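// run 5 | inverse folding | seed 20
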């Protein structure tokens, strides 16, 4: 499992500035539901040209929610020029760090901000590096986007590139192209990225059965149940046997032909994200 900082958990459970703004001055949209992460960010300026209001909506993991929430807090009160200087590493630092495998969430936040600023300046919704060659067809990542995360974060391996922008995380057919980009750029490491890589890794927490049950119930109550209830469904925690979590789907969910998909891709994914990547969710037969 990944051990998240208290700030990451706070911004995940209590996200700031969620929603939309009528007639925003800048609007940026990045990602894709097909790729698992999507983010919409918008802002409104005051008479002094500072960001007076900023909102976001995201579909993604807990780290994506936390990174988006943190970014909105970071840019409030800033001018466009000041906000544009915020990097993905700044977002991660604000959250007291992100797991290496989740750094792409901070990159997505920075890209959404840049898209919103570009929209404010030109009135157009244009994807950064739109004219650049697509290297990773699985996730639609361009050569320009890959080169940028390598330069800005001092990346030196295909695995790191995948962590920061998802490129190479699908079929793997683009690994040789990513390696070629790494070699061309010389994989030079900036001081900030070098310092970040020297930080000691967080040790996984050891969970007692009672603590595991408390965490599972907390995630179900705060994140899973509200989403199911909006569609007329519900979920009940029945029992926990080590890494096995037994639940019962209620309401409309109990009759849904896609119940198995809901359990695996939503319930199980959420519990693995914040508790233990070895968790398996099963439907209790009553």
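// decoded
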């Amino acid at each position: 499992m990944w051990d998240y900082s208290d700030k990451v958990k706070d911004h995940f459970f209590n996200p700031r500035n969620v929603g939309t703004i009528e007639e925003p001055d800048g609007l940026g949209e990045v990602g894709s539901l097909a790729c698992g992460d999507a983010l919409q960010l918008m802002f409104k300026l005051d008479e002094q040209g500072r960001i007076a209001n900023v909102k976001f909506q995201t579909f993604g993991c807990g780290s994506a929610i936390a990174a988006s929430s943190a970014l909105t807090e970071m840019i409030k009160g800033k001018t466009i020029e000041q906000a544009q200087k915020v990097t993905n590493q700044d977002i991660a630092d604000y959250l007291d760090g992100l797991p290496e495998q989740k750094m792409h969430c901070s990159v997505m936040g920075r890209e959404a901000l840049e898209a919103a600023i570009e929209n404010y300046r030109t009135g157009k919704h244009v994807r950064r590096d739109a004219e650049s060659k697509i290297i990773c067809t699985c996730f639609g990542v361009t050569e320009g986007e890959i080169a940028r995360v390598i330069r800005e974060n001092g990346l030196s391996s295909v695995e790191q590139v995948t962590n920061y922008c998802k490129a190479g995380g699908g079929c793997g057919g683009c690994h040789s192209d990513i390696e070629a980009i790494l070699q061309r750029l010389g994989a030079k490491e900036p001081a900030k990225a070098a310092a970040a890589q020297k930080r000691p890794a967080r040790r996984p927490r050891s969970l007692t059965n009672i603590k595991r049950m408390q965490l599972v119930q907390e995630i179900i109550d705060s994140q899973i149940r509200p989403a199911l209830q909006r569609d007329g469904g519900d979920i009940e925690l029945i029992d926990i046997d080590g890494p096995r979590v037994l639940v019962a789907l209620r309401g409309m969910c109990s009759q849904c032909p896609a119940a198995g998909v809901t359990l695996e891709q939503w319930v199980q994914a959420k519990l693995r994200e914040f508790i233990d990547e070895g968790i398996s969710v099963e439907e209790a037969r009553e």
